[in-house]
Amino acid sequence: MTEKEKPPVFKSWEGWYVLLMLFLFAQIIWFLYLSNHFS
Amino acid sequence: MSTIDWIVLIGSLLFIVIYGVWKTRGSKDLEGYLKGNNDAKWWSIGISIMATQASAITFLSTPGQAYTDGMGFIQMYFGLPLAMIILSVTFIPIFYKLKVYTAYEFLETRFDLKTRSLAAILFLVQRGLAAGITIYAPAIILSTLLHWNLTLTNVFIGLLVIIYTVSGGTKAVTQTQKQQMLVMMGGMILAGVMVLQMLPADLSFTDTLHVAGKMGKLNPVSFDFDLENKYNIWTGMIAAVFLFMSYFGTDQSQVQRYLTGKSLTQSRLGLIMNGLLKIPMQFIILFIGVLVFVFYQFNEAPLFFNKTGTEKVLQSSNAGEYKELEKTYHLVFEKKKDAVSSMVAAEKVGEAELVRLHQKRIKELQVEESALREEAKTLIVKTDPRIETNDKDYIFMNFVMDYMPIGMIGLLFSVMFCAAMSSTASELNALATTTTIDLYKRSIQPQKDEKHYLKSSKMFTLMWGILAILFATSMSLFENLIQAVNILGSLFYGTILGIFLVAFYVKKVGARAVFIAAIVSEIFVLIVHFLNVYELAPGLLKMGYLWYNLLGCILVLLFSILIQKLVQNHK
User: Fold this and answer.
1) Calpha distance B492→B118 (Å, rounded)
2) Rounded Cα–Cα distance for residues B32 and B37 (Å)
3) Structure pTM?
4) Given B4, B39, B115, B147, which is the most exposed site by the fewest CB atoms within 10 A?
5) Cα–Cα distances in Å, from B237 out to B50, B81, B137, B276?
6) In chain A, how long is the greatest CA-to-CA distance?
7) How far apart, in whole angstroms, are the C-alpha atoms of residue B10 and residue B347?
8) Cβ neighbours, 10 Å, residue B444
């Protein structure tokens, strides 16, 4: 419950959330590349 | 299957069960049994969340899904990371602050007992039936492949789970899910590597991708907006967010996983781990299906993937006609194989026009092949109407049994059983917790001691386990039930999520308004569903069932605000 143990990389949670969304968009872009390049 | 395969299969399953029981022996208090003493680390929570969601059907059906329709299914998971963020920001801090055992306990703090009980009962009905499906759906496929009796397969899966879930509770579920996840992902990745090695030696990895892409199997993103189509980016980014928020935020079988966390931080990190790894995991499973598809462009695939169906038709008076179909199918395959090889050769030298010509020829042959498969299915139904003609779920395991080496077959069957067990265990654990905490301890026997509730939790786990096996065995009698139960989640999830969202965000809405709004919304969703199913309002309303999650949720929000206003004006 305590917020003492913060995640090691980011000081706030926003960092993790941004990373997660960036990773999602990177994956979608890669999927679009797969669809278009090999079809 | 060979003796080595049996040793791998039975050995791995027994090891997991015995290890789970031994490692978590002697649970002495209720908190330890239901919340695992709150000592789980983030990676353990993440694994547990992923293992709970990955049922046997995920591993059996997904490669077959990619084989037939390509990779579009992955879009369903695009909403998952966003749902993880919303839950980390809103739901989990409140659950932690209130130190709840179940998600529904929070509803009593915010509203009243009847709203809590309504949500708990909706969960018990829906998840109780779904637990039966989690056992039955893989049992029907695995029993066919292993030539086991269906009822015995149901009992086998159910009993293995009951042993460690009753004995060790939440801790046993989390503990065993680590080994199960290792078997599942290890087995699948090994299988993927092996399929790659089985492809023709002169076919490079890029060539493999070109074959798959040009034959319409590498299509993970579709921007076509269609309410009826489950797999497009809009359904994935909008409707699925609501589905995943309901599933991970209000379904006790998931909530219980992250409530075992050492701290709020650990639980949040567990959910973020799920958000990061879920899409890559589904991609790997779908990609294995695509690799199997490419493999079958160079090795002849069976006309029908469920061998029991083929055996039956070959023993019947339709055998002659079926053999003729197989002959024509073989000729089409040979032509297609040549066309695919020529297309790969043309791609290598960069002859774009020639590639397009071959691609067109291959498409024509694929249409011929599909027509032959349809004819074969018609013959099979003519022979025995009870045989399921949708053979998608048999594609992957059929491939495994025909082409994988000794040891791998046992390992991949173990993958399927582990997946069935990991989801069922979380479900039984959550059903027992909700029954004990939200109904038994709250409304039936509130004045007993800790020991009594610990014993009751164990009894309820056993009871739900037996019920799940009974549901599973009766499923074969009511085939239509399966489809119904599969969409049952989406029918109720929207409403339950709506109640929680009102609780979090619309502070002025009271207990009475939300309770009436929930009931009205649920009736509304059910009406929409029946209009859809029986096509009573064609052209007016056609909706894929994933959208029910959004509909139910929005209706509860709207109705509760409206009713609250009406009540206030009336006063």
Assistant:
1) 11
2) 4
3) 0.89
4) B147
5) 20, 10, 28, 16
6) 51
7) 46
8) 11
pLDDT tens-digit profile of B39-67? 889 999 999 999 999 888 888 888 998 99
Mean pLDDT along residues B111-128: 90
Whether the pLDDT of residue B531 is over 50: the answer is yes
Across the interface, whether the CB atoms of A34 and B84 are under 8 A apart is answered no
B356, containing H or E segment: helix B352-383
Chain B residues close to A5, C-beta within 8 Å? 263, 265-266
Q: A38–B279: do the CB atoms touch at under 8 Å?
A: no
Produce one character per residue of B298-314: b if its CB has 16 or more CB atoms within 10 Å, e if not: beebbbbbbbbbbebbe
Do B485 and B133 contact (CB within 8 A), yes or no? yes
Token readout for B440 is 């038994």
Closest CA to B248 of B210, B288, B275: B275
> Which of B212, B213, B264 lies nearest to residue A3, judging by beta carbons?
B264
CB contact under 8 A, B265 and A6: yes
**In 3-state terms, what secondary structure has residue B393?**
helix
Tokens standing for residue B110: 């915010």
Burial class (CB in 10 A: 0-12, 13-18, 19+), B263: middle
- Which residues have C-beta within 8 Å of that of residue B360, sequence separation ≥ 6? none
Q: What is the ipTM of this complex?
A: 0.79
Q: Nearest-CA distance from A11 to chain B in Å?
A: 12
Tokens for B59?
A: 């591993």
Determine the Cα–Cα distance for residues B23 and B193; give it in Å rounded to an integer. 33
Q: Which residue has the higher pLDDT, A39 or B486?
A: A39
CB B329 within 8 A of CB B303: yes
Q: How far is A4 from chain B (nearest CA, A)?
A: 9
Task: Name the closest residue on chain A to residue B77, using Cα atoms.
Answer: A24
pLDDT at A4: 53
